[in-house]
Each structure stands twice: as C-alpha cells, then as structure tokens.
Specification:
GO terms for molecular function: ribosome binding. It contains 3 helices and 12 strands; from the N terminus they run βββββαβααββββββ. By secondary structure, it is mostly beta strands.
C-alpha cells in the first residue's frame, strides 16, 4: 500500500515527479506532492534526481481528468528551457526536490505543530501507555482525508484517520508519535 514519496537525503524534500510530455511545445505532466499541486512552481529552481540538473517551473495548470472528481495531483507544467517534445520526453521519471532551507523560507514562521509528512515516515507509533504498536510507513490521502498507515510488529498494516483524536502527540525529535485506536462500532460486519 505504501509508495510514499521520500527524499534520498534529509536535506531535501521530494515535491513531485515529471511524467510524460504533453503537446509539442515542451510541456510536461507532473505528479505534484505539494498541498496545492499548482504551487510547485513557487519554490524556484528545483533540484532533481539527476546530478547537476535543476528545473524551474514557469507555468502550471490542472491536467484535465474527466474520469475522476477526486483531488487532482497531476498538473501540466512549462519548464524553463524546455521548448520541444523531444526535450520534454527526456525528463520523464525525473524526481523534483526542494531544499529544506528553501521550504522554511517559503513557509515563513516555523510552527512546532507543523511538519512534513516525509518526517513522519519511520516514526514509532506508540499506544497511550507507551507500548510500541508499529511504525509509520505512509500518509495516504484517497480524496476524503489524510490517513496514517502503520505497519504493526506482526507485519500487518492498518490505516487510521490522521486526526488529532487518533494522533494526539507527535514527537519527531524523540522518534515517535502517540496513537489512540478508535473503538470499534457496534453493527453488522460487512
């Protein structure tokens, strides 16, 4: 179930992945991992998974998807210096990163209640009494709300709502977060 984007090192954060070329003038599809997918262009020069290659998104628009009404993460982007389909084709699969310093600059005030999803991956998930329940492996969002995916010691994974009621405490520096398992509701099983 996982597949959560992650950075190869802790100094940068994965913001998106370039997909197929779109049209003849060098536009590309980008699967954007930013809260607002169109905002990926606000971070300036983006680092890439190719050493010494940076890319700058100069223009974005939503990709048309008639099949789904869910939150769209794929956008159509114009990249500086990419002006042909051939150049765009060569970028397919390249990951786009931003340095943590640049993220802090764009964010402004640092709030201890704010964090990046990537920083939660790998944290221990502990029950209220401190007992180890498992490890955070992903924070998916399938359209309704954020979820937290925890791999239990048994190897089984569980999805829980990523809410303050279920995850009341996050201690990134200590390497864990606390969870309160929701009580099962009465009723017939499906």
């Amino acid at each position: 179930m996982s597949g959560q984007p992650s950075s190869p090192d802790k100094s940068s954060v994965l913001m998106g992945r370039v997909g197929a070329a779109h049209g003849l003038k060098g536009q590309v599809r980008i699967n954007s991992y930013t809260a607002d997918p169109l905002a990926i262009g606000q971070y300036g020069e983006l680092l890439t998974s190719i050493p010494d290659l940076t890319l700058k998104v100069t223009k974005t628009r939503p990709a048309k998807n008639k099949k789904s009404s869910l939150r769209q993460t794929v956008i159509i982007a114009t990249l500086k210096g990419i002006d042909s389909r051939e150049k765009a084709d060569k970028l397919n699969g390249i990951e786009l990163y931003v340095s943590r310093e640049k993220l802090k600059e764009n964010d402004g005030d640092e709030n201890e209640d704010e964090f990046l999803h990537v920083d939660l991956i790998g944290l221990e998930a502990r029950l209220e009494n401190g007992t180890l329940f498992g490890e955070v492996v992903a924070l998916p969002n399938f359209g309704a709300a954020d979820l937290i995916e925890i791999k239990q010691k048994s190897g089984k994974t569980i999805l829980l709502p990523f809410t303050l009621a279920v995850v009341p405490n996050i201690s990134i520096n200590e390497g864990y977060l606390s969870i309160i398992l929701p009580e099962e509701t009465d009723g017939e099983k499906r």
